[in-house]
UniProtKB/TrEMBL annotation:
This is CRYD protein. GO terms for biological process: photoreactive repair. Keywords: Chromophore. Pfam families: DNA_photolyase. Residues 1-77 form the Photolyase/cryptochrome alpha/beta domain. GO terms for molecular function: damaged DNA binding; deoxyribodipyrimidine photo-lyase activity; FAD binding.
Length: 77
């Protein structure tokens, strides 16, 4: 979770992420983790800037051969 996506406000002073959306996201991640666990896998969840968190995970794991990611689409107003 990148705090920059959830903290502060967006247009017209509205929060970037309201309480209902945040609850939905957290419940979805929890459900995904439980589903993966049943299949013998896991889900790594971290909070921080992706550019820092991914670098730290690669360092911790030591044997990473590939990294895949996507970039959030930003709305242009």
């Amino acid at each position: 979770f990148d705090p920059r996506q959830y903290l502060g406000t967006h247009c017209y002073g509205f929060p970037k992420t309201g309480p209902h959306r945040l609850r939905f996201l957290l419940e979805s991640v929890k459900d995904l983790r439980e589903t993966l666990k049943k299949k013998g896998s896991t889900l790594v969840v971290r909070k921080g800037k992706p550019e820092d968190v991914v670098r730290d995970l690669i360092t911790q794991l030591g044997s990473v051969s590939a990294v895949a990611f996507h970039e959030e689409v930003r709305e242009i107003l």
